[in-house]
Structures are given as C-alpha cells and as structure tokens.
Amino acid sequence: MNNQVMNVGRNSQFTCRHCGAAVSAKGRIHTSCAAKRTITPPEVRARIDAAFLKNADRLGYLQSRWADESEHEDWTEYIDALMMLVPEGGKVLSTSKRPFGITFSMDGVVGAMYSFRATSNGVQWTRTK
Question: In the chain, which ranges are continuous DSSP H helix?
Fold first, then answer.
C-alpha cells in the first residue's frame, strides 16, 4: 500500500498505515489507531529475537544461495527452509523471493505480523503490522 496519496508542491498529504486517515508525515500512524494497536508482549518479542539471532546466518545464506541458484533450484525447497526459521508459536503467513524472507504471526498477538528479511545488504526482522 502506498502511504503517499498526493504530492502537490510543498503541501503533501499522507495516509495512516493502519486506517487510511490523513496524517502529517509519511509512515505515521493516525492517533486513534496508535491507541488501538496491539503491543507485542515482552515474552513474544524475546522468542522472536531468539529465533532471529539463532537463524540470521542461515537466512543470509539462503538469500545468497537463492540469488545465485534461482534458475536451477525449486522455490518450494526454500519455502520449507524458511518455515524452519519461524519462532515457536508462529504461524507462517507468506514467503517472498523479493525481498527474500518470510512473514508470520504469533500466538497471543492479535492482528500483528512480523517478518524476517534478507537482502544483499544484510538481514533484519520487523513488525510489519
């Protein structure tokens, strides 16, 4: 979803990433939406951190290998390997070739989505929703 609705001269208008209401800057969340947003519990964050730290090298290796061998290897093998990276209590939502990675949800955190991503510049995990 493109956060930028209109760009006319100096007066740019952007929309909330959550509900679509007008906000003052790109990437911002509408005030009422921020109050409704589910907070990731510390124990869930700890499980995600631990899984990411344990698997960061593997994620980077898989991305590098896919970049080199994508013409010769089957994507389903990579899906299986990516699914092994998801922390305990995680449910796979999708995988992607570009950016290379996996998106998942976690038990006990309603409406939140997380992703592990790898590019040629490095690996990261983020909360995407």
Answer: 31-36, 42-69, 75-83
Task: Decide: 61 and 55 in contact? Cβ < 8 Å.
Answer: no
| CB-CB contact of 111 with 38 (8 Å) | yes
Q: Give kind and range of the element (H or E) at residue 118.
A: strand 114-119
Q: Are 85 and 51 in contact (CB under 8 A)?
A: yes
Task: Specify burial of residue 107 (Cβ count, 10 A radius: 0-12, 13-18, 19+).
Answer: exposed
The number of residues in the chain equals 129
Contact 65, 120 (CB under 8 A): no
| CB hemisphere CA count around 92 (13 angstroms) | 13
Successive 10-residue mean pLDDT values, the chain, 129 residues:
36 61 63 65 93 95 94 93 94 95 91 92 91
CA distances in angstroms from 61 to 24, 57, 86, listed in the order given = 40, 6, 16
Collapsing DSSP states into helix, strand and coil, what is residue 47? helix
